[in-house]
Design a protein that fits this description.
By secondary structure, this protein is α+β, with helices and mostly antiparallel strands. It is built from seven helices and seven strands; from the N terminus they run αβαβαβββββαααα. It has one domain: 2-Layer Sandwich (Beta Polymerase, domain 2). A five-stranded mixed beta sheet has the order 1-2-5-4-3. The chain is globular, with a radius of gyration of 17 Å.
């Protein structure tokens, strides 16, 4: 069991290091960003339930497409390169064997063409003790319910289980996303 905790801590430190380096470079250049995805969910859930927070493989950042060239230039000194694969822009270290890195999602754009909603525009961020700027919970809930893959459903369950999805957030959702939230809750209850 101790080995499992060590692996968890190592993975978390790797993610934080990547986030610190990239977010620091963006901040230095005055480029707006928000951490989104699984790492943002982790940072929101962990203070409420340290054992209920799950790790993710990479860092997801919401940025503005107009800043892409500036982002690529800002991270070049970190040894990161921009790669574009179908449906995904990412920053990777070409020397790293696992090719993990940073996924870029563009605000006001759909991640996939069939998504119900676009990635939310920047709203007031939640700031972690490390200084990271996170997408606030309402934006994460919308993004997770829009993507609606298995891992997104798990993130919804994690946020819901610690009371982050409030009645106010639920009421603010469009009908289609509210229906998806109810579906996740029903599946979680085994209904």
């Amino acid at each position: 069991m101790a080995m499992l905790f060590e692996l968890f801590d190592q993975q978390l430190e790797q993610l934080k290091t990547i986030a610190e380096r990239v977010c620091g470079a963006l901040r230095q250049e005055g480029i707006e960003y928000r951490i989104v995805g699984g790492l943002a969910v982790f940072f929101h859930v962990e203070p409420r339930d340290p054992f209920g927070a799950r790790l993710t493989k990479d860092v997801d950042l919401a940025v503005t497409r107009a800043d892409l060239a500036r982002i690529v230039a800002a991270v070049r000194s970190l040894g990161l390169e921009h790669q574009q694969v179908p449906g995904l822009d990412r920053l990777v270290d070409p020397a790293a064997p696992n090719r993990r890195g940073v996924h870029l999602l563009f605000v006001r754009e759909r991640v996939r063409s069939g998504d119900l909603l676009a990635t939310p525009d920047f709203s007031e961020p939640t700031k972690t003790i490390e200084g990271f700027l996170l997408a606030p919970v309402p934006d994460l809930v919308r993004m997770k319910l829009t993507s609606f893959r298995l891992k997104d459903k798990v993130h919804i369950i994690d946020m819901d289980s610690v009371g982050l999805i409030t009645p106010e957030i639920e009421a603010s959702l469009p009908d289609a996303l509210r229906d998806r939230l109810q579906q996740v809750r029903a599946e979680e209850r085994g209904a």
